[in-house]
Amino acid sequence: MALTRDEMDRKLDEHFRFEAADDIEGVLATLAADVEHDIVGSPAGPTHGHDGARAFYEGLFADLSEGEMHTLRRRYGENFVVDESLWRGRAPGRPFGLAGNDRPLEFRLLHVIDFADGGEIQRENVWIDLAAIIAQLPQA
User: Fold this and answer.
1) Which of 14, 65, 77, 138: CA 20 to 30 A from 90?
2) How confident is the model at residue 83 (pLDDT cuts 50, 70, 90)?
3) Tens of pLDDT, residues 91-136
4) pTM > 0.85: yes or no
């Protein structure tokens, strides 16, 4: 059964709220048990299942803080959404291997989200504006 736009928006917005709160258990609750989590360009490659997603989010929450996600636009298909967002926050850790030194950071993301029949996120594919991150976190 196809999800409505409102149902997809609610689930994705819930997912982003849990991310903003650094709530790993909440994030995992929005994901299907066999989720594929793919951050394009990550040396680790895609992860699978809750354990793989948990490890990713533990690192992410250590590297980035005070994050706010602002959706710029969304495009919808049958049980999928493409979301372009702007992330703003701070970089206390080493986001994407770069020394953050607790500097402010802002970058765009493109999410391609596939939903399972039950409404959970089945696949999260994320494209990050790494050039913007590198420009804001120059290395000495």
Assistant:
1) 14
2) very high
3) 999 998 899 999 999 999 999 999 998 899 999 999 999 999 999 9
4) yes
Joined together, the tokens standing for residue 73 give 């636009």
3-state secondary structure the chain: CCCCHHHHHHHHHHHHHHHHCCCHHHHHHCEEEEEEEEECCCCCCCEEHHHHHHHHHHHHHHHCEEEEEEEEEEEEECCEEEEEEEEEEEECCCHHHCCCCCEEEEEEEEEEEEECCCCCEEEEEEEECHHHHHHHCCCC
What value does the mean pLDDT of the chain take? 95
